Amino acid sequence: MQTDQSSFKQGFIWIRESFALFRPSPGKWLLLALAYVILYVVLPSLQLLPLVLKVLIGLSWPLFLVVAIAMFREADMQRDTELGDILRALKPYVNKLLALGGICLLYGMVVSYFTQDDMQALATLTDIKAVPEAEASMARNLGFVVKFVLLLTPMLMATWFSPMLIAFNDYSLGKAIKSSIAGCLKFMLALGAAWLILTVFMTLGMMLIGMVIGLIAAISQPLGLSLIAVLLLSSLFLATALMLAFQYVSYRDIFQLALTPRPEV
């Protein structure tokens, strides 16, 4: 398959194929997204969770990601593979995936060090109870947001493909990271277009549903507030599931080895 790295159309194709993968079994992929959010968003944010557990969760992230992508790969190949079989096939690559998780943790610590003076501003931005203050803080701290995104971009590029390259292509850790960054740079326009399309779709969908919920809230405020909470959670799970599907199809088309049957491990 020829993949045009400079094409906005390629980004659209990736998102379309992500929806095509999601559509036959939405419940399965939403449950996968729920597990992802709980493990890597909710649990690390809990203050009472012991540090050692947070470290273990961080180390496990590449392994979980590879399992999720493998599930999408099996669905794409129309194979009904058991989760246990996927885990057994990935067993030889666990050490390298955990090492990749360690690198991500160390990089996260570096980012935290350079942004520690601004983390209070980030907390304000995510405080639902202080919406007016959050809006003012966002305007004052736009530079911090840009800096935070720029600092995280190298890690995103390094890990977008590297877990799959380790587990599916048998790359070394260093080669996987290098190839992931190279792939992101080479296909930057197509990947950026796909991200933009997915973001616009989710935003417009939330706006339309939000308008309906607003009308309901005008009639019953408690019901409206409950529906808003459901909307936010549903949107988060849907966005996560589609992001994982997009990560798979972009890996598949760029490296073109994911659809090649692997020998039994």
Present the secondary structure layout.
Blueprint: H1 8-22, H2 26-45, H3 51-76, H4 83-90, H5 94-115, H6 119-125, H7 131-140, H8 142-160, H9 162-169, H10 173-186, H11 188-219, H12 221-255
Helix pairs in contact: 1-11, 1-12, 2-3, 2-12, 3-4, 3-5, 3-12, 5-8, 8-10, 9-10, 11-12
Task: Write up this protein.
The chain is mainly α. It has one domain. Helices cover 82% and strands 0% of the residues. Helix 2 packs antiparallel against helix 3 (51-76) and helix 3 packs across helix 5. The two termini are 27 Å apart. Residues 125-136 and 258-265 have low confidence and may be disordered.
Number of domains: 1
Sequence of secondary-structure elements: HHHHHHHHHHHH
Query: What percent of the residues sit in helical stretches (DSSP H or I)?
Result: over 70%
Work out the strand percent.
under 5%
Arithmetic mean of pLDDT: 82
Inertia-based shape: globular
Q: How would a textbook summarize the main sheet?
A: none
Helix and strand content put the structural class at: mainly alpha
- Low-pLDDT segments: 125-136, 258-265
Count of separate DSSP helical elements: 12
Using only CA atoms, what is the Rg? 20 Å
Give the end-to-end Cα distance, rounded to a whole number of Å. Answer: 27 Å
Number of strands: 0
